[in-house]
Design a protein that fits this description.
The protein has twelve helices and 13 strands. By secondary structure, it is an alpha+beta fold. A six-stranded mixed β-sheet has the order 5-4-6-3-1-13, with helices on both faces. Bound molecules: alpha-D-galactopyranose (GLA). Alpha-D-galactopyranose (GLA) binds near residues 38, 125, 167, 168 and 170.
């Protein structure tokens, strides 16, 4: 996506007239805690200063018009006849409308134009930005009275039903509930949130492999199934276990014989990653960014070797970054199979970092594509 807010407003005016509301819904980064959200574990994301801008206006009939500026696509339909579309792009939006209808909220027709500056398919959660943006917009437009957490859950359910990805809740919660200059420690079981200030003397850089995440969907759902299979085995020994969140490492090892190798490795990764998030938050509180960065590096190792959701390009970029001076930690971010690495870099080393990564990008035969991101406010009216 590459449209500015002004372009979205101009696009709306050209097609429909004056918008009733304009909003911004951000993408997110995740410092640590990958593939833990759907295991009811812990994550540490933040919304960032890249996102989707939407302009909306209600109509007096039951027709909706969706206009994707950057894709140059348009879809018109009836609120009372929602179904998944053969093209992928409208399904994030149709899914949200469908969830609201299923929950018996009164929606009328509306017009929507959207665009933004969030790279698609880079693992920065453009899907959650779209879902949360529309859920938030319709909540405002039709005075539905839903809170941000509920809107995030509607976004997640839209993705499960109309897009077909059994995602966790991290991306939508981050897009909805983040705060400027803060990281968000989220407990994905009870959805409680603690904010941790992001220090001014470090910067977040994303290095984009530009590798299309072709395997992401099937690979993602498969990982989730492995975790559920592991829980089913362990539950036989302790019925109190509801998810991998409840599993201690020694208990997992005690039942290793009952697992096939792949399922065991994947479950072990999740249990360890949860411990890393807890340790990383403690390190942050103690001001120990060196330790925090080490945990990020270990997270990458686990994602690559045990959970197997990395790819050669991500491995090269993470490895090269972690050897540069001033880089505290580097790891693949998000679902994996492509997308970006996230790098925590001392502010004083920011320029040298970008220079230093040029050679690593050459090794993966891609031109350098690096985004500097800052933690920002969740979805908001402009
Ligand atoms: C995707 C999903 C999230 C989460 C991450 C991996 O971004 O949408 O719910 O599972 O992958 O941590």
């Amino acid at each position: 996506m590459s449209s500015s807010t002004d372009a979205v407003i101009a696009g709306f005016r050209a097609e429909f007239g004056e918008p009733a509301l304009i909003l911004r819904s951000p993408g997110r980064v995740n410092l640590i805690g990958e593939h833990t959200d759907y295991n009811e574990g812990f994550v540490l994301p933040a919304a960032v200063d890249r996102g989707v801008t939407m302009a909306l206006r209600p109509r007096s009939d039951r027709t909706f018009v969706l206009r994707a500026l950057d894709l140059d696509k348009r879809l018109e339909g009836q609120i009372d006849a929602l179904a998944p579309h053969p093209d992928r792009w409208p399904n994030y939006l149709l899914g949200v409308m469908d969830q609201l209808r299923k929950a018996r909220f009164k929606l009328g027709g509306f017009e929507l134009v959207y665009g933004g500056d969030l790279p698609m398919g880079a693992g920065m959660s453009s899907s959650a930005a779209l879902e949360c943006g529309l859920a938030f917009g319709l909540n405002e437009l039709f005075k539905l009275g839903l809170n941000r957490q509920r809107l995030a859950q509607i976004g997640q359910a839209a993705e499960h039903t109309f897009v077909g990805v059994k995602c966790g809740i991290m991306d939508q919660m981050a897009s909805m509930l983040s705060r400027k200059d803060q990281l968000m420690r989220l407990d994905c079981r009870d959805l409680s949130v603690n904010y941790v200030p992001m220090r001014g003397d470090v910067k977040i850089f994303l290095c984009d492999t530009q590798v299309e995440r072709a395997l992401a969907e099937s690979g993602y759902n498969e990982r989730r199934a492995s975790c559920e299979a592991g829980v089913a085995i362990l539950q036989k020994h302790d019925p109190a276990i509801r998810s991998l969140r409840d599993v201690q490492l020694d208990f997992l090892y005690a039942h290793r014989d009952e697992f096939d190798g792949v399922t065991f490795r994947r479950c072990r990764y999740v249990v360890e990653e949860n411990l890393r998030v807890i340790a990383a938050c403690e390190a942050l509180e103690d001001g120990d960014l060196g330790e925090f960065g080490q945990l990020m590096n270990l997270s990458h190792y686990g994602l690559s070797q045990a959970y197997q959701v990395s790819c050669p390009e991500l491995d090269v970029l993470a490895d090269a970054a972690s050897k540069l001076p001033g880089v505290l930690g580097s790891r693949m971010m998000g679902a994996g199979f492509g997308g970006c690495t996230i790098n925590l870099v001392e502010a004083s080393a920011a320029e040298a970092f970008q220079e230093g990564m040029i050679e690593a990008f050459a090794r993966i035969h891609r031109k350098p594509l690096i985004h500097m991101c800052a933690p920002t406010q969740g979805t908001e009216l402009l």
